[in-house]
Amino acid sequence: MSTRELVFLGTSSQVPTKTRNHNAMFLFWDDIGILFDPGEGTQRQMTLAGISATRITHIAITHFHGDHCLGLAGVIQRLSLDGAPHAVEVFFPASGQVYFERLRHATIFHDAATIVPRPIRINKDEIVELFNKNGLSLHAAALDHSVDCYGYRLQEADGRSMMPDLLAKHGISGPAVGELKRAGSVTVDGVEVKLEDVSSVRPGQSMALVMDTRPCNGARKLAQDVTLLVAESTYLSSETREAHDHYHMTAEQSATLALEAGARQLALTHFSPRYTSHQEFVNEASPIFPDVVVADDLVRLSVRRSAK
Asked: What gap in Å lies between CA 160 and CA 174, rounded to an integer?
């Protein structure tokens, strides 16, 4: 059975706290493993979560503030130490190339892993495809932060759900069903039956990550109709002015983004270390968007099956 699950390795912004590590997330998606924004301490958090470095197939950096990338050096060195058998692509804003290179070669080590840099450039209000493999695509869009910052969205292509009553009506069963799926149509008693005649569209699952940004068009595009939206919630609405000045969002703004975009579920993370209790984030977000999770370190959140 395929695994599609997001693990929150760290949920603090700017600095770690006693209970929250620097920001980082790991997304299991079948045979793909994407490490997002490995802040300081990510390697240890992966150990606590039981995630091997060799599960990493891609790394995606939103921007080069330290709480989103300081763990990259250790992770890359661990890939060599553990003998990762595959190439690992690293996506990051091209304007941060110098910081990537510093982290990539931060210390002396036996550099054996195949690390493939994928610097990206995105214009405002543009969403770009970074890869498309077997119907699974990764996209990025520019966010509104104090430095170049990109959000990401992993999207499964839409499929089709067979409708047993319509299959029976057209006399299609057994191997003919498989042929219909492969060819798109079959002929039964001289009548052509198309796939769309006996099936309905099944929306693909998706996950979007919106970090370190004010509300903006890029965030809305990434979040549109997404299965799981992971959004920064650095502040509460009592600090709305501070959030704006520091290019961040409040819990209220993140919930509003999820509501207006038609997301199915919202997970809040990246909390300012000033907050010792996070029930207030639930209290602020849930009246706007009830299906909300306030993430803690090492929490695992399954990506739900898409509604038919």
From this structure: 18
